[in-house]
Amino acid sequence: MIPVLAIKDKEQFLKIIKSDTYSLESLIKILTIYYKNHKLFNCHFNNYDDFIEYYYLNAEQLYDLAKNIIIEPISEDKVKKALINIERLINPTIEEKELLERLNKIFEIYQKRHNDIYNSKRTEKGTKK
């Protein structure tokens, strides 16, 4: 996966997206946020293979768009605040103790999933340790 888009090595960038469709899909999703009206992202495809082939053919253009974008990680504190706000909207009568218990459970799941993803090798059929 491409965690930071500001990749200065064009060859490395092209190698990553051409060897891992998951990274390519993630990249497209991120770039469409920054370049909503760009013609490269306003195409409609009949199938997944057409989608992948189109973006492989436009890999250099993707690199030009991506090379100056830096995605900063979201702090754990911001995520916790957002989850607390959502939980309070959903359940306005929730007690503070229960709210903190739910938050801790969510973070346990998140940390386990994060460790599983980043401590494993991604393959076309899933993850492999």
Description of the molecule:
Residues 121-129 have low confidence and may be disordered. The protein is mainly alpha-helical. It contains six helices and two strands. Helix 1 packs across helix 2. A two-stranded antiparallel ribbon has the order 1-2.
Run of helices and strands: HHHHHHEE
Low-confidence stretches: 121-129
Please provide the count of β strands.
Answer: 2
Mean pLDDT: 79
Helix content: 55-70%
Structural class by secondary-structure content: mainly alpha
Shape: elongated
Report how far the terminal alpha carbons are from each other. Answer: 16 Å
> Helix tally?
6
Order of strands, main sheet, comes to 1-2
The major β-sheet equals: 2 strands, antiparallel
Note the beta-strand portion: under 5%
Radius of gyration: 19 Å
Key features of this structure:
disordered C terminus, 129 residues, 5% strand
